Amino acid sequence: MRAFLTRWAVNVVAIWVVFQFVPGVTFVATSLDAILVNGLILGLVNSIVRPLLKLVTFPLIIATLGLGTLIVNTCMFVLAGWLGSYLGYGFNVDGFVAAFVGALAVSIVSIPTNFVFRLAFK
């Protein structure tokens, strides 16, 4: 349960940073609830859909020496936004570049945030 809450908190912080600093990624709903729900959706998408997509795109990931993982992360970011928009809490992404930068920002923010949360809850 602690690992789930840590991942959710990390995703919430990363989503908030993306909403504040990445142009082309806009809220559907602007509230704390929306950020919490989007963090949950992103976590669920990354834990359920991402492993399946990485398995299917394994040859692409090998052929691009791992850079295909960035495309998988971009797809997961767009899927999380679409699912959240369907529920009324998501976000809109204006094109591939915004989705790519948003997914990259989530990855970059998640690494140190995950480290800090794991130390805090240890």
Main pleated sheet: 2 strands, antiparallel
Order of neighbouring strands in the sheet with most strands: 1-2
Q: Tell me, what's the shape?
A: globular
Structural class: mainly alpha
| Quaternary status | single chain
SSE topology string: HEHHHEH
Determine the strand fraction and express it as a percent band: under 5%
**Low-confidence runs (pLDDT<50, min 5 residues)?**
none
Proportion of residues in helical segments: over 70%
Total of helices: 5
Number of strands: 2
Mean pLDDT: 92
**First CA to last CA: what distance?**
13 Å
CA radius of gyration is 14 Å
Number of domains: 1
Quick overview of this protein structure:
The chain has 122 residues and is mainly alpha-helical.
Protein architecture, described:
The protein is mainly alpha-helical and 122 residues long. It has one domain. Helix content is 79%, strand content 5%. It has a two-stranded antiparallel sheet. The longest helix is centred in the middle third of the chain and has 25 residues, at 32-56. The chain is globular. The mean pLDDT is 92.
